[in-house]
């Protein structure tokens, strides 16, 4: 992960190890050519966003063990798809973003100013998601 940068220009931080997130389930939100969904935004789940996502056909609450997916709760950190986050933003339902753990590649589609409006409190680190 050393070569990956976040939207602030620093080293990409892990998003969540519990639950394990990222396209590769390694805790990081970085771009991969084989990830058409672009799981590059580290977001802090809210009940509002989880409901919105489910209404759009992407149920992030129900566990899917066959896909190594635990199901999410409000407060969990998760790598969300760039297009879904933009959609939620346009609908006024976007979740907070951990800027340290969000890939710089997101800046191709979302301005840093917009992301900063949704900046999560990064004082609580990844371990805080397991409380």
UniProtKB/TrEMBL annotation:
Database matches in InterPro entries: DUF2237
Gene3D superfamilies xrefs: Protein of unknown function DUF2237
Pfam families: DUF2237 (PF09996)
Family matches, as PANTHER family: SLR1628 PROTEIN
Name listed for the protein in its UniProt record: DUF2237 domain-containing protein
Organism: Haloarcula japonica (strain ATCC 49778 / DSM 6131 / JCM 7785 / NBRC 101032 / NCIMB 13157 / TR-1)
